[in-house]
């Protein structure tokens, strides 16, 4: 008797069934992906507001009073975002998030007499440090896991703060050891003070200057650091006054571990804006879900000017492998309509834009602040047309009642996959909780600075400019979302944490690919679960192109039990099928055996 072998299709069916059940069983995240919260937990406001003031609940009414936010970053290495802020009297302080008590329960004074500050892991120990700028000196303060800061030393040849127009954290040699670029206001915004970190002795910065060829950065604009040409590696981007008016975009491409400032001549240059356009602010993001970082500008005419980036991406498994020619298109107006989608809305020339995906659709929305008044602009990109819609529903009125006096930012307060708002007000720093009742599928990616990877005290300091690209299938086909971490880190107008948040509500099943570029290397991971947090650890400054990935996703016993039940049921069905096939085979064998029996004749 022969025994039938299960058909390979059965095995494929069972494998696919198990994967699909696991994917569709991933729930909305309601607890932190990094650590268990204490008994207090997240607030339940029980209202229908789009955003609700959680300042008192999280203790910022005390610890954030009189403080304007300068930077959101993990300042004590616990994987949670803290607030670096500046008081009116020049006191620079850190306010630390405590997930066990669910509030900002600890503060630490970093320095006094401060005008501005930047945050990065300058000594490559895995904990974020701070450089505080005073009128006549700039000092490096080393962070610690205990929430304290120690003075390391002052920057050499530092000009007075009055000579600095803006600051930028970048990686001159692509080694993920942070360097610093200061725009020289004393020279008419035509040159830079450069502080280069010593990769062999991180935390030791040397001084030099750099003057790009024929570039004057317009007043109010600042340099940026993000991927322009599609290899996921951050490039240096300078807005320069055009020779015939307007603003040019000039780019220095990252080429392996070469010196990014080796040449004063840009790798590429475009003139996307009209000669008559006066720009007040530039923001950078993937506004149309094409997998490319593009440019959005606020003009003095009250319009948004959109510059598409048409560089393309690589194929499956190598989205960062694009090797074509990048191209910035000519600027077009991105219309803003009212809630009905009819009447045009114009912005004040002083408007400051802050990116937020408040509705988890993967398209960056805009939190606009003009003369203290806030307005949420929903990204309604469709049919190859980028436009925004002003959200004036009553559910936003409470948020709009706040007078915002300093830069704002969206971030995930407790690392559960939510987009809240940190606001600077006359009374201090406020936190507004996203309380919209909606689905909230997401993926957050964070690439860290180079630091030794240790099992007991792993690094937790985000890198600037590192790019992630998330690809998945939706009803509209393949979607690709590109994001560069805090491309204007160090700018007084950009305080966002260096993390990339991607809303996945349009996703049909699972994350097809996560591609990441940092330093001077890139790679991809495929077939990932949503509602997760991906943390990429470069091994060291000497080996910044080798990484470890830790993928945090929510534990769900109910889903596991469900998978086991369905799998067991499927195996039972398969077992019954095999028994039936064996019985049928036995009958066929018996018939065949009887048919072969000889027939004897007893006739005489």
From TrEMBL:
GO terms for cellular component: plasma membrane. SUPFAM superfamilies: Integrin alpha N-terminal domain. Keywords: Glycoprotein, Membrane, Signal, Transmembrane, Transmembrane helix. InterPro entries: C2_TIP, Integrin_alpha_N, Tip. It is a single-pass type I membrane protein. Its main location: membrane. The chain crosses the membrane at residues 560-583. Residues 1-31 form the signal peptide. Belongs to the TIP family. This is T-cell immunomodulatory protein TIP C2 domain-containing protein. It comes from Cyanidium caldarium. The lineage of its organism: Eukaryota, Rhodophyta, Bangiophyceae, Cyanidiales, Cyanidiaceae.
